Amino acid sequence: MASIVSSTDFTANALADNGITVSRTPKTKVLLSSGTESLVDGTPENITAILSTKGAQYKNAKSGDVKEIDGYIMVAPATTIVKNDTITYSGTSYLIWDVVERGPSGDTSIYKYCPIILKG
């Protein structure tokens, strides 16, 4: 008999078994007096995530070599995380490139997948 997928499956299993504590620094857009937008650091908080990093990957494009992602993190569906947040682990900082909710259907989110790039 097939089991039904639950929104807590990732949190109770993969995240509980393989998760590590990383620091998330939220970014907030503010409007400067000049009329331009800027990203300002918020208050860092610790979150539990699965972190996978790799060496810099490049793909060949007409304009030259283009850097791809440096890894990814996966977090629980209830964890607040948005594009441009900073993730720090062991003194290395990464920028959240995107946030994609994953699950078997549109109504059930199992986890958030976030490609990351090395900050610097």
Helix/strand layout:
Blueprint: H1 9-18, E1 20-25, E2 27-31, E3 37-41, E4 45-53, E5 58-61, E6 64-67, E7 71-75, E8 86-89, E9 92-96, E10 100-102, E11 111-118
Antiparallel strand pairs: 1-4, 1-8, 2-3, 4-7, 5-6, 7-11, 8-9, 9-11, 10-11
Structure keywords:
single chain; 120 residues; mainly beta; Thrombin, subunit H; six-stranded antiparallel barrel; two-stranded antiparallel sheet; 1 helix; 11 strands; 8% helix
Per the CATH scheme, the topology name is Thrombin, subunit H
Domains, number: 1
Strand content: over 45%
Q: How many strands, which pairing sense, and closed or not: the largest β-sheet?
A: 6 strands, antiparallel, barrel
Structural class computed from helices and strand pairing = mainly beta
Total number of β-strand segments?
11
Look at the structure and give the CATH class. Mainly Beta
Strand order of the largest sheet: 1-4-7-11-9-8
Gyration radius over CA: 17 Å
Architecture, CATH level 2?
Answer: Beta Barrel
Distance between the termini: 50 Å
What fraction, in percent, of the residue positions are helical? under 10%
Mean pLDDT: 86
Global geometry? globular
